[in-house]
Amino acid sequence: MAGPDRPAMTGGRRGQLATSGLRPGWTTGACATAAATAAYAALRTGEFPDPVVVRLPQGRTPGFALTRHRLERDAAGRPVAATAAVTKDAGDDPDVTHGAVVEVTVRPLPVGAGVVFRAGDGVGTVTRPGLPLTVGEPAINPGPRRMIRDNLAAAGRPPDVEVTVGIVDGHRIATHTLNGRLGIVGGLSVLGTTGVVVPYSCSAWIDSVRLGIDVARARGLQHVAATTGSTSERTVRDLYGLPAEALLDMGDFAGAVLKHLRRHPVQRLTLCGGFAKFAKLADGHLDLHSGRSRLDPALLGRLALEAGADAGVGAAVAGSSTGLEALAIATAAGVPLGDAVARAARTEALRVLDGAPVRVDVVCVDRAGAVVGRCTSLGG
């Protein structure tokens, strides 16, 4: 399930693009691969390699220290189950699973069984369609499954084993992720396609947005709402009464929503977010984070004039230092600047959708969640 366990951050939570000065880390999938490889080695040889070296995609071969390990034997002294645990190090990324202990137990199965995955304590189970695993499967992403299979196979003949992946305290940690909304219950997802966490890459957040759309489509929902945060989510829920599965926490990634819907459309999309953020969308920015795009007061001045402002009010709006200041100036003059921003943001959204059959509504809110601008359409 690439994406649901995106970083839990507050304030400037979307961070900034990774730089060479930030330390990368390892995904839950890489940690599970290391723990499974160590456990399988112990099952075969009676000894746990520590550190255990694994091969990840793109040719990386990191070594992982074991947090703990345990070997179970039968009455004859033969190994029947091996458990190894690795503590996740997410590097300098504010990942919600940083410091989590990923524990894997490997047990032998009859010849021909292959590698069978189970969800241990703290790892969730898929309960709804739309994700890249079938309903009832443990929430272990296809990427980590492949990494585990490849590393176990590298030890010799193709293994026939049961691999149970758990995450200590995963039930609690999962409450800080989108898993519940996506239909993953009972814990976290085991994630990662490359095995590496790139600090502030935001890829997990964007993957969550895409998965949210896929789940909504699989449930037959034809109206989804993408919001920039909890305040705008409350507003759009009150306006439309949408179910939780139709609500997408897009954060600053408007482009991720629009580009995925361009390929996988639904009938109707409502964009709901802060006035200043949507002023940036109106200006063509698809990443609305303050560190990656800037509000252009001159644009607001032009939009104010289009909305009926006189030259003096337009100049005052264009000279404002913040979006909220511009909105206050326009509101005091009776100029519907919020509606103008919503219309311009909708125009940009339709441009990105590039003809996809999606009706688009835009709702701008202030910091308290009050609607300050709106643009709806019965068509295109």
Question: Can you lay out the helices and strands and say which pair or pack?
Answer:
Layout: E1 25-26, H1 28-45, E2 52-53, E3 63-64, E4 68-73, E5 79-87, E6 101-108, E7 115-119, E8 122-123, E9 125-126, H2 142-153, E10 161-167, H3 170-174, H4 179-182, E11 184-185, E12 187-188, E13 196-197, H5 203-218, E14 223-227, H6 230-240, E15 247-249, H7 254-263, E16 268-274, H8 275-282, H9 297-306, H10 311-318, H11 323-332, H12 337-353, E17 359-365, E18 371-375
Parallel strand pairs: 7-10, 8-12, 14-15, 14-16, 16-17
Antiparallel strand pairs: 1-13, 2-3, 4-5, 5-6, 6-10, 9-11, 17-18
Helix pairs in contact: 1-2, 5-7, 8-12, 9-10, 9-12, 10-11
Which range best describes the helical content: under 10%, 10-25%, 25-40%, 40-55%, 55-70% or over 70%? 25-40%
Q: What string gives the helices and strands in order?
A: EHEEEEEEEEHEHHEEEHEHEHEHHHHHEE
Q: Could you say which structural class the secondary elements and strand pairing correspond to? A: alpha/beta
Largest sheet: 5 strands, mixed
N-to-C span: 32 Å
**Number of E-state strands:** 18
Mean pLDDT: 88
**Unreliable residue runs:** 1-20
Provide the gyration radius in Å.
24 Å
Total of helices? 12
Strand adjacency order, main sheet: 4-5-6-10-7
Shape by Cα distribution: elongated
Portion in strands = 15-25%
